[in-house]
Design goal:
This protein is an alpha/beta fold. It folds into 2 domains: 116 residues, Aspartate Aminotransferase, domain 1, CATH 3.90.1150.10; 223 residues, Aspartate Aminotransferase, domain 2 (3-Layer(aba) Sandwich). The chain contains 13 helices and 12 strands. The strands form 3 sheets. Strands 2-8-7-6-5-3-4 form a 7-stranded mixed sheet, with helices on both faces. Strand 5, helix 7 and strand 6 form a beta-alpha-beta unit. Helix 2 packs antiparallel against helix 10 and helix 4 packs across helix 9. The longest helix has 24 residues.
């Protein structure tokens, strides 16, 4: 790399930009970004079209969406924060809580944006290895908390591996975490969860844990990935601090209208989610039958623990017209996309299964 023309923080200069799932050509299935394969409902498209006034700024706080979600969670409007995707809120919370000398703690491997949160905030990322089943080792995470820990992220279901954190496990974990440390429960895939023992962000909030913030998104189950709208629910004082670090006016009017229309059509949308969850469970079982040790899948994706073979395995899928998401040295994540892709996924997976 050539010498920079201005002085950039060294850790930022060395930080790789977030790399999204690879795009797919017209003849391939894109299974790399955990997107919802169903097209938007007509009512959602109509809502977006009515909101297009691009010469005007949106209402910055998305008041109608906040009120709707506040009613759902039984909280005040100021206990809900809307931003351009839940990952935006993660960055805001990191900057609000953490700086040089502080630590942000999370399980690894997990969502690939987590390490950069700490770097951008000037803090230190502390990672705790996943357990043997691909989930969070909450006891080890609690052991890793120090007086420098300012923020802990718990991802359930864990992206990209799939397992959930249980309610009992999360409750026991909270009992060991100091009350002045922020715990973020990232539930980006909550709507796909079918395990009755899984942690529920709504239940955690109702139990009264002011140092917990729950994250959700409209990108996955509701199919609004292209409009960028996510939300947080938690103590208003924490969310006010997050808002102060955010980019102003980042949630468009179209995104708010689409989210509201999606909530109006929730029964129909969640029927699609149930269909995808059924495909997920079927695919995971078929992949296990080919010899892959697929972890318990509770998001809209499955995980192949390919280890050092990850890039080669992903290349085999791409050759068959399936664009998946490899994580070098760890494994391959396959999103649940079009039903027509399932048989080919199994065929390719069988051809590269561990021997």
């Amino acid at each position: 790399m050539t010498e920079l023309p201005v002085r950039i923080r060294p850790e930022i200069a060395a930080l790789p930009a977030y790399k999204q799932g690879k795009q797919a050509g017209a003849e391939a299935f894109k299974l790399s970004s955990n997107e919802n394969p169903f097209p938007p409902l007509p009512s959602v498209i109509a809502a977006v079209q009515t909101a297009i006034a691009v010469n005007r700024y949106p209402d910055a706080s998305s008041p109608r969406l906040r009120a709707r979600l506040a009613e759902r969670f039984g909280v005040s409007d100021d206990a809900v924060h809307i931003a351009a995707g839940s990952v935006s809120i993660l960055f805001q919370l990191a900057q609000a809580t953490s700086g040089p000398g502080d630590e942000i703690l999370f399980s690894w491997r997990s969502f690939e944006a987590y390490p950069s949160l700490a770097t951008v905030a000037g803090a230190t990322a502390v990672t705790v290895p996943n357990d043997a089943a691909g989930g969070h080792d909450l006891d080890a995470m609690a052991d890793a908390v120090t007086d420098r820990t300012r923020m802990i992220i718990v991802c359930s279901p864990n992206n990209p591996t799939g397992p959930v954190v249980t309610q009992a496990g999360f409750d026991a974990f909270l009992a060991r975490v100091p009350a002045d440390v922020l715990v973020v429960l990232d539930e980006a895939y909550a709507e796909f969860v079918t395990d009755p023992d899984a942690v529920s962000g709504a239940a955690v909030l109702a139990a009264g844990h002011p140092h917990v913030v729950v994250l959700r998104t409209f990108s996955k189950a509701y199919g609004l990935a292209g409009l960028r709208v996510g939300y947080a629910v938690g103590d208003p004082r924490i969310l006010a601090a997050a808002r102060s670090t955010g980019i102003p006016l980042s949630v468009t009017a179209a995104a708010e209208e689409a989210a509201l229309a999606s909530l109006d059509a929730e029964d129909e949308l969640l029927e699609r989610v149930r269909t995808l969850a059924g495909h997920r469970d079927d695919l995971a079982a078929r992949l296990r039958a080919t010899g892959w040790d697929v972890p318990e899948a509770q998001g809209n994706f499955v995980w192949l623990p390919a280890g050092e073979r990850a890039l080669d395995v992903a290349a085999a899928f791409e050759e068959a017209g399936l664009i998946v998401r490899p994580f070098a040295g760890d494994g391959v994540r396959i999103s649940i996309g079009e039903h027509e892709a399932l048989d080919t996924i199994v065929q390719v997976a069988a051809s590269v299964a561990p021997r």
